[in-house]
Every structure is written in C-alpha cells, then in structure tokens.
C-alpha cells in the first residue's frame, strides 16, 4: 500500500525550479543539493507519515538555510530533528528560532507523533532562496521580497500546491504561517484558484520568536485553538 510517506518523499525528490531568477538570488534545494537532508527527511517521513490518515496542510513561506534547508523537514532544524523527532543527523547542528517555537507548540499539542498524525507542514514556495550581500554572505530570501521573482515563481507555486493536495491532504482548511505578505499572497491565489474552502492565518514563528517571545505561550495557545477547528 502506498502511504503518505511514499508520496511525500516522491514529491520532494521531484522538486526542481528551472524558472528565471533575478540577479544575485539563488535557489536552495535540499533534496538535490544535500544528501544528508535527503536521507534525514526520508527517515522522518517514513517514521511519522507511514499511513494514510487524513491530514491538514500548513504552508509557511519558503525554506530557510538553518531549518528545512538543512534537514529537508519544514520548520525542523537539526537540534529538534535529533532531540524531538529521534532521528540522527550527521551534518552541522544548526539552530533556528522558528523551529524552537514549532516544537514547543507541538509538545503542547500532545507530542510529535500526535501532531504529525494530523498535520503536514510545507511552504507556499517549496524550495528556498538565498541572496548574496555586499559582504559576500548569503542570507535567506522570501519569494515575495521581489516582485519579479514572485511573478516568475507564480506558476510553480500553483503547480506545487496542487501536487501536494494530490498527495491526499484535506482542503476544507489550510493553515498559513504568516499574517502579512504570505497570507495576502495565499488568499489572492486561493481566490483565483479555488483550492481551499478556508484559510486560517497564524503569526509566523520567526516573528513570534523575534518580537513576541515574552508572550510565546499566548501564541502557542492561539495555534492550538486554530488547529482544534479541524475535525
């Protein structure tokens, strides 16, 4: 029997963006550029998605360098992959604040197995972007930070949201991480494409950890209340 794990791994393995990129912006594809990430994510999905239980989709912005850009698992840095998911990671042990928030929320939900039994996290644009600064350092870049990039990526975004839906996820509710430009983009796309019946947006974990860390528990409760709307 083909499981969610099989379908997700197949989906990740076929991901490849060949569209135009503005000057200075590079694509980050952990499934083709990082054997460690490919192996770690494959083990993760076999461990937590080896069934066909109904799940709801959660869409972030696009992968960052120190989370899914390293592990291949959305909002999961190596620290959390090891300590919370019980999966060995032989690569660099990076830390991402967004991952810290997500796994504290998952613990409050009831634990990793319980959460991933009901939800699947990926991104509006399923691969990452980086931009090289004047100092030569690469930093994360969002699909909506450049109108030229957003327009070029738009067909790829639609195609890949539909591919993820075809894996078998529910469409009555889609959760969106980001109550600013990511939410606005996803709502506009959904108005045009009629993919989801309803979108529920939540403050992005990075925003919470950077600006609202003292009230993190309140945001965890808000997440849990939103997720409780799924039958």
From TrEMBL:
Annotated Uracil-DNA glycosylase-like domain residues: 46-227
CDD domains: UDG-F3-like_SMUG2
InterPro entries xref list: Phe_SMUG2-like (IPR032579), Uracil-DNA_glycosylase-like (IPR005122), Uracil-DNA_glycosylase-like_sf (IPR036895)
Signal sequence segment: none
Protein name: DUF4918 family protein
